[in-house]
Amino acid sequence: MPRTPAPHHPLATAAKRGARLIADELRTPSRSTAPLLGRAGKRWLRMLPYTIVFGFVATLLPVTATVLIQDYRLGGALAGALATAQTAPLLLAVTRPLQAWWIVFTADFAGALALMGAAGTAGRSWPWTPMVVVGYLLLMACLGLREPRRKLVAVWLTTGAAGLLFELVPRDRGDGVHLLLFVLSGVVLVVTGALRERGDAQRRLVVQETISEAERAQRTLLEERARIARELHDVVAHHMSVITVQADSAPYRIEGLPDAARDEFGSIAASARESLTEMRRLLSVLRSDGTEGERAPQPGLDRVQQLVEATVRAGVPAEVSLAADLGEVPQTVDLSAYRIVQEALANVVRHAPGAATRVSVTSDDGHLTVLVVNGPAGERTSPLETTGTGHGLVGMRERVRLTGGTLDTGPLPDGGFRVAARLPLTTQPTESAEDPS
């Protein structure tokens, strides 16, 4: 009869699986080879890891060789080789700590084997010498600042396993240095690993905040453009309705029109009605879900006085100066100027309550000039918002671009703020608009 294979013990299976995981972790070093503290802004901080490691190596190498020769009575050549192998690779730990750990750990293990036959080992630390403990803890700090948590656990368990292996050797030594190294290395790995994870979390938070701010700015821009499109619908729809009425009534108002002219006017009226239909479809897409269309006419400069009065009631001393000879202002410019004044006054209420504010609207050289200037915030009031994203200026810039004008905004020397918009009273292509802000 064929023999039935004995079932594997669960503990043995788990041990094999754990050993395989540890081996996998120790075989794959971090992809990053950037020096520790390489992202520091100051040069002395970037050089600090090299200085510390070089200082340790310069101290430990001769001390290790001397102690191995004089105290442990090891041969000079072997002592020099072990001292170099146990300390010099620490210089590699600044950029490649796991590779440095492999070299140092192998050298420490070999040194422990060599000390088993040394004449001066009795009564001294074994398997790890005091210099090995100091260098190893420095190496653990470099590992903790670079490698992930699972790899640190693998290194720590390997360290404990090596100490336990030497503890099983029947010799008259019981100073417990292997247990001391196991505990201290664990503490160092936990502390430095926590510092590394905290730094990584802070960097990810900064990146996420930057991305969120960019997305917020883009969303604000798109929302403002959709709002402008909804508002301009009424303006354009009015002109298209006038074209439709004029084209439909032309054959009745003008006598003696030839048939070709009547057909042309009919075609114009049909195209205008089709354009109105397409505009309404576009508006239904731009309008948010559940938002009903506005039925009130779009505001203009004739309502700027009401804006200023509302601002005064909000606790901001404001005054307005409207030129009497503004002339004929296109509807688009009229609406844009009103919205610019509205947003500027809203910013004063939010960020500089109590600040004296002056609104001025003038017309010269074929341009409409809108100026809103406020002084510093009042002493007895505090801003409703102490920080701002500047997104309130997005709408101003978009409306200025729409009309082909220019916008200039910025703080004043006395602590106030100025918004100056210059809008053309004649139609200009928006591609040529300049925005110095």
TrEMBL record:
Catalysed reactions listed for this entry: ATP + protein L-histidine = ADP + protein N-phospho-L-histidine
Membrane-spanning ranges: 47-69, 75-94, 101-120, 126-145, 152-170, 176-195
Keywords: ATP-binding, Kinase, Membrane, Nucleotide-binding, Phosphoprotein, Transferase, Transmembrane, Transmembrane helix, Two-component regulatory system
Enzyme Commission number: 2.7.13.3
Keyword Kinase: yes
The keyword Nucleotide-binding is assigned to this record: yes
Region (Disordered): 406-437
Name of the protein this chain belongs to: histidine kinase
Ranges for domain Signal transduction histidine kinase subgroup 3 dimerisation and phosphoacceptor: 224-289
Enzyme class: transferase
PANTHER family reported for this sequence: NITRATE/NITRITE SENSOR PROTEIN NARX-RELATED, NITRATE_NITRITE SENSOR PROTEIN NARQ
Residue intervals of the Histidine kinase/HSP90-like ATPase domain: 336-426
Pfam families (UniProt xref): HATPase_c, HisKA_3
SUPFAM superfamilies: ATPase domain of HSP90 chaperone/DNA topoisomerase II/histidine kinase
Signal peptide: none
GO molecular function: kinase activity
Domain of life: Bacteria
